[in-house]
Amino acid sequence: MLVAVDCIIFGFDGKELKILLVQRHLEPELGKWSLMGGFVQPEENLKQAAARVLTLLTGLTNVYMEELLSFSEPNRDPVERTLSVAYFAFIDINKYEQQLSTEYHAEWFPLANFPKLIFDHNIMVQKAKARVQYKAAFHPILFELLPAKFTLPQLQSLYQGVYDVTMDKGNFSRKVLSTGLLVKQAEKDKASSKKGAYYYKLDKRKYNANFHAVLNIIPNPDTLYI
User: Are residues 168 and 219 in the same domain?
Assistant: First the structure.
């Protein structure tokens, strides 16, 4: 049995939550869209293999990455019996877009509308999204997708993309600011409107002391599951 890793790479461009896909360069399913993956080498553990695959595609190291699940159906790969361990990772698109490797024909797609993937990769993406929804209710992982300073409209767009909901702008702003976790900055982002929107930063020390405050933001947190 072969052992592989597959990476579900999420990014946020300030408006949409996206996923990074590559075009498969060998048969079967030549030319079709796929997650980026590779076989675990003899000298590697799973995490090291996933980090190597991520670096090959993006040129990046020390990216937020987390093990998801193993996928071991006997017929999941039509060529050889292969067990795959999936990882999900977060990338700031605006910061790292130019570093993406062109060797694998990588392309960002909206998470709400991406092409059919090979093998069981669509299931991997579904499982990763469910895990992100759960984790984001208790930990500041979504801020890994944002630049160091961000606007409330950007944060709202990110939450809406993760949870597939439309949130009222005023209500969302009140809930977020009531947590006391954000620090308002003096500068404004005037790219989207003449009036502009103030930038904010996450106060990580306050978050660590009161991370449950973010549950006020999450729609229907009782329905979330791993």
Answer: yes
